[in-house]
Amino acid sequence: MKKIFGILIIVFAISLQTMAQVDYSFGYIKKKRDFKNVPTIGIKGGITLYSMHFSDANYNDLPGKYLLRPGYGIFVEYDVNIKNTPGFTIGAELMAVNRGYTKEFVLRPGSTDIQEIDKLDAKYIDLRIPFGYRFYSDQTVNPYIFAAPYVGFCYGGAISKEFPNGESTDQTVDISQSDAVINPLDAGVILGAGIRFNIKFDVFSLVLKLDGSYNFGLMNTYSKTDGVPADLYAYTFTDDSRNNRGFEFMLSLGLPLKFNFLHDACHGW
């Protein structure tokens, strides 16, 4: 269903772009006129690598792995600057991403004998407002930097405990069925840089963007009903806050919505 929805968005956007650039002139053709700034709409997707920063050094220093998951969504972007010059951009994105962490508890510090593996895999829907600055290299290639404040809503996922030594039974809790696992809201800022390619065809244009970013989560993700971690194996925990941290590597494909109006009497040109 998600793939079909994405294909429909692309087909609709290409159709709109094509129709928008057809020249209608009641028997004669005039010179094309383009708006200086036009919005770009499109889809984006890639991979994410997430972990968490904990307030307790003991917890924070535990060995673990990044949570590797896909991320995808839709975006709209608008140039504030004059066309073909360096300047600012603003946009909006609706993204689906997974955030979480994996931590390994050992019998004692420095040991390689893993007693327990804790894993959080939370599903989020983000609303992001990217503010960017695009450097002008030429009309085809534009490097850029951006900062995107965001608000995220956790709608599902799971938290699990695995016991490799078999002394206890593995446990998994569905986040959507419990309010004692994670704060449903998240907020922070995503900082990144990338490069934009402007690809022009006869009847429409494409924008291709490649970027990498770092998510600096600012909200405590512990549920308000969570208990404070206690003694576990060789550790004593007093952790009371944790924040999402992670990397995102995305590819974006967009369509500039350029409308060429050619009939002077109708449009006042």
Average residue-wise pLDDT = 79
- CATH class category: Mainly Beta
CATH fold-type name: Porin
Going by CATH, the architecture would be Beta Barrel
Low-confidence stretches: 18-35, 261-269
Query: Gap between N and C termini, in Å?
Result: 44 Å
Class inferred from helices and paired strands: mainly beta
- Shape descriptor reads elongated
Please outline the major beta sheet: 11 strands, antiparallel
Number of domains: 1
Number of helices: 3
SS strand fraction: over 45%
Please give the number of β-strands: 11
Helix content: 10-25%
Q: What value does the Rg take, in angstroms?
A: 24 Å
Run of helices and strands:
HEHEEEEEEEEEEH
Describe the model.
This protein has 269 residues and is mostly beta strands. It has one domain (2-21, 36-267): Porin. The protein has 3 helices and 11 strands, in the order αβαββββββββββα. It has helices at 2-20, 57-60, 264-267, and strands spanning 39-54, 64-65, 67-79, 87-106, 114-128, 131-134, 141-162, 171-174, 185-200, 205-217, 242-256. Strands 1, 2, 3, 4, 5, 6, 7, 8, 9, 10 and 11 form an 11-stranded antiparallel beta sheet that branches. The longest helix is centred in the N-terminal third of the chain and has 19 residues, at 2-20. It is elongated, with a radius of gyration of 24 Å.
